[in-house]
Specification:
alpha+beta; six-stranded mixed sheet; 22% helix
């Protein structure tokens, strides 16, 4: 799967020991947190593995005329659930620009019947009739050719750039063939193993996922052979006129495929990649692949694929900046999360949240200390309150991917802080044990939020349904239903009373959809920290939530229609209140 992480130059950088300030917004509560292949993995504990497809691809690419000529021998288990048993048909997608030359079964002279049907603006559906005598495995060979050239579309001017756009391109500027290209038979929600042989004119160099078995140059042609023994959701192939540098790092081949102008930076990137892999192997378990390639792209991108990352030329040029936490390491951690353990898009994208937590946040805590970590949590919460307005917010479990700036704050930032909150709740050892167990149990298969919950419940020996429901399923309109929030609201400062449609302060009742209250006081359990509550009586009243960090301590501000109508210090004689999540 193409994991677009926003790893690009930008005006703003991307994207618990509980923080100094825990923020709640109610009556509609706005909650922020600082807060030959042999199929592998069959029969392991956990969710049953899907039957694996096996592709044997032979591909010839000619950039000067944008042409691909290919043959794929596909093996598919009859019990895969991908074959329509009533009609005895198999459906798969291909790029509509590709012409099917022939489809024939393996070890048979029988002719296969197939039809091409329109699917969408760039793909066709091939419906193939399966012979009645097919038993455990059905194998067939598909020969096809065509022109693939979707010109690069420049990205929109977003703070969190997702990269330039193309569905696939074979040209003199470079080669990029991904799951969006439909350049080989693709079956939705399947997992596959791949054997791949690619031939191109010299000096073109191919990079793809898996292990490089051989590369040779003969009679002006460059041929490379690749094998991918770990299940993958899709196969991506790129090519360029690269200079290649490779170094062995604890048994893994680390390579940089850079243009001549950036070749001098290769060693620096390889060194950083090796150090990151070594660090995250201690946190997540052994690195799953035999290689990791850092590949320079001919258009702006920050993509993570199994065993390689594809970075735009301008990213490579940044040098040391591109090696800071949250950049290259983010793509490397996708080698465990997203490209080794997959998520189910229908059940929510947890991968970006956990990857962001490990790289953008935890690395900072590990290497720079608690003060830097606290600043990160505070900045994350501030940014969320500014960018994710009530009408834009949706539950974290509903996050699938980002197309707008604010979705980065939901799926990446808030999602990552949920993992920090979980870590602080269940403890250091169970949390990090849980991370390793997720990788061990679900490597080569899909996992969803419920699977993660199950693992953390097992390692912590406690039920966590309340925790995951609260942080994944609730938002502004219903966050007050959370059991922990209800508990917090029973321990308010003296003189402050919260009702369903109003609040009382200093003996006076405030009521109305435009009324809101910001109140902060010292945490009695930890005098160095404070509690901050922001209450709004309707979504419109939450508009001032962005200012909840900018008022003084031991104070309150009452807003009406977004403007302060009263402010004062909180009485010093106010009794201690209970802070449960220290």
């Amino acid at each position: 799967m193409n994991l677009r992480s926003g790893f690009l130059p930008r005006r703003k950088l991307r994207g618990f020991r509980l923080p100094h300030s825990l923020t709640l917004a109610g009556i509609l509560l706005f909650i922020f947190v600082f807060f030959p292949f042999t199929p592998l993995f069959a029969g392991e504990e956990g969710k049953d593995a899907l039957p694996l497809l096996i592709h044997h691809l032979e591909v010839r690419l000619t950039p000067e005329d944008h042409r691909i000529q290919a043959q794929d021998t596909l093996q598919i288990p009859m019990n895969s659930g991908l074959i329509n048993s009533d009609q005895q048909t198999l459906s798969f997608s291909m790029n509509k620009a590709l012409k099917i030359l022939e489809i024939y079964p393996e070890k048979s002279d029988q002719t296969l019947i197939w039809h091409s049907l329109p699917r969408d603006e760039r793909s066709q559906e091939i419906r193939l009739q399966i012979p009645a005598e097919a038993r455990e495995t059905f194998s067939f060979t598909l020969r096809y050719e065509g022109i693939i050239y979707d010109p690069i579309q420049k990205s929109r001017d977003l703070s969190f750039i997702t990269g330039d756009e193309t569905t696939g391109l074979i040209g003199e500027e470079g080669v990029y063939l991904s799951e969006d290209t439909y350049w080989y038979p693709e079956i939705p929600k399947s997992l596959s193993l791949f054997n791949l042989v690619v031939t191109m004119p010299e000096p073109w160099v191919v990079v793809t996922q898996g292990e490089l078995i051989a590369r040779e140059i003969k009679e002006g042609l460059s041929k490379s052979q690749w094998r991918s023994e770990i299940p993958a959701e899709a196969l991506t192939l790129v090519a360029g006129k690269y200079r290649v540098q490779t170094r062995n790092w604890n048994g893994a081949a680390l390579s940089a495929y850079f243009s001549p102008e950036n070749e001098s930076l290769a060693d620096k990137f390889i060194q950083a990649a090796g150090e990151y892999i070594q660090l995250y192997s201690q946190i997540l378990g052994p690195y799953p692949y035999k290689k990791f390639d850092i590949v320079e792209n001919f258009f702006s991108s920050g993509y993570g694929f199994p065993s390689f990352t594809l970075l735009g030329k301008e990213v490579i040029r940044q040098g040391d900046r591109a090696l800071q936490p949250g950049y290259l390491d983010h793509e490397i951690v996708h080698s465990w999360l997203g490209n080794y353990v997959f998520y189910d898009p229908d059940k929510g994208n947890w991968v970006e949240a956990l990857t962001t937590y490990c790289t953008n946040y935890y690395y900072k805590e590990l290497k720079q200390g608690e003060e830097a970590a606290f600043k990160y949590r505070k900045r994350a919460s501030q940014q969320y309150s500014i960018r994710v307005t009530p009408e834009k917010e949706y539950p974290v479990r509903a996050f699938k991917g980002k197309t707008e700036d604010y979705e980065n704050d939901i799926g990446y930032t808030k999602g990552s802080m949920i993992f920090h909150q979980l870590r602080r709740w269940i403890g250091e050892d169970p949390f990090f044990l849980g991370l390793k167990e997720i990788i061990r149990r679900y490597g080569g298969r899909r996992a969803d939020w419920e699977d993660l919950q199950k693992v953390f419940e097992e390692v912590s020996h406690q039920p966590l349904d309340w925790f995951f429901r609260q942080w994944l399923d609730l938002k502004v309109g219903n966050a007050r239903k959370s059991a922990p929030v209800k508990e917090w609201l029973t321990h308010l400062p003296e003189g402050f009373e919260l009702k369903e449609d109003a609040f009382r302060l200093g003996g006076k009742e405030y009521k109305g959809e435009e009324i809101a209250l910001l109140v902060t006081w010292r945490n009695p359990k930890n005098p160095m920290k404070y509690l901050t509550f922001y209450f709004g009586l309707a979504p419109g009243a939450l508009s001032r939530a962005r200012y909840l960090f900018y008022d003084g301590w031991d104070s309150y501000v009452i807003f009406e229609k977004g403007y302060p109508i009263q402010r004062d210090d909180w009485p010093e004689e106010s009794p201690d209140t209970v802070y449960y999540f220290r």
